[in-house]
Amino acid sequence: MIIRFFEKIGRFVIGHLETLGQFTILIGNTIAQLRYPPRMRHVFQQMSHLGVDTLPIITLTMLFTGMVITLQTATEFIRLGAQSTVGGIVTIAVGRELGPVLAGVVTAGRVGAAITAEISTMKVTEQIDALKVMATNPIGYLVVPRLIACMFMLPILVVFGDVIGSIGGWMVAEYYDINIYMYLHSIDTFVDVHDITGGLLKSIVFGAIIAIVGCYYGLNAQNGAEGVGKATTRSVVISIIVIFFSNCLLSMLLYR
Description:
Blueprint: H1 2-33, H2 40-50, H3 55-79, H4 86-124, H5 127-133, H6 138-175, H7 180-190, H8 193-219, H9 225-255
Helix pairs in contact: 1-6, 2-6, 3-4, 3-6, 4-6, 4-7, 4-8, 4-9, 6-8, 8-9
């Protein structure tokens, strides 16, 4: 029984190390393919599909997030006589953490799943093998356009999300008699450019994570419809976990 227990632990560790090694190889191959000019038509298609179509859900998510932050903080700040800081606090919270993280999680759920489902379907229907027969590198044809699109579009979505989140906070602040002048003056006083640019740097990393993880599980999907479903589920779960982990590291590096 003890031997079987350690065998299971060994298989678990070796399996995850193999996955990590395959991830590293995919990242290396993708970086190597970046030396060649990407097909811009494919990049723009992915930017529209992965970025523009995600804007409505990002807008709703960040609008209600800004409103909730103000609901939770305005009462306490008014009780302490610090209502003039509400706008700055909401904008800092959205710009540093909630904007990039929530945008990354929402994008992982929508975009990461779409990337994995599309590529895994190509894998099980042997379309990727057809690309290799036609001397087309699957990494350059499939992974690179999605990587560029995610890394470019997610920061743009975060900018929209930051603005919408601040507007949502102001909408609730008006209910507490915090006028727009006080709200905007608080933002101008307390918010630094680094609070916003740090969140944008995070979003670039999150975009790369979503694209690489989605493409990895798509390229390594098992045959059949069940394999496509499992690959899509794993892609979303792993993307969200890695986003939270990398957010912790980036926050320590950028804001300590």
